[in-house]
Amino acid sequence: MSDEADLKLLDQGYHTIMRRVVETGRAPHYTDLASELGLELGAAKALIHDLVAVTPGWTHPGTDYLASFPPFNLQPTQYHVTIDGEQNWFAQCGFEAMAVRWLVPGKHVEINAPCLCCGEPIFVSMCDDVIESIQPEEAVGYSPSEVGGDAASRPFR
Question: Which of 17, 30, 50, 146 could form a disulfide with 45 if both were Cys (CB 3.0 to 4.6 A apart)?
Answer without folding.
Answer: 30
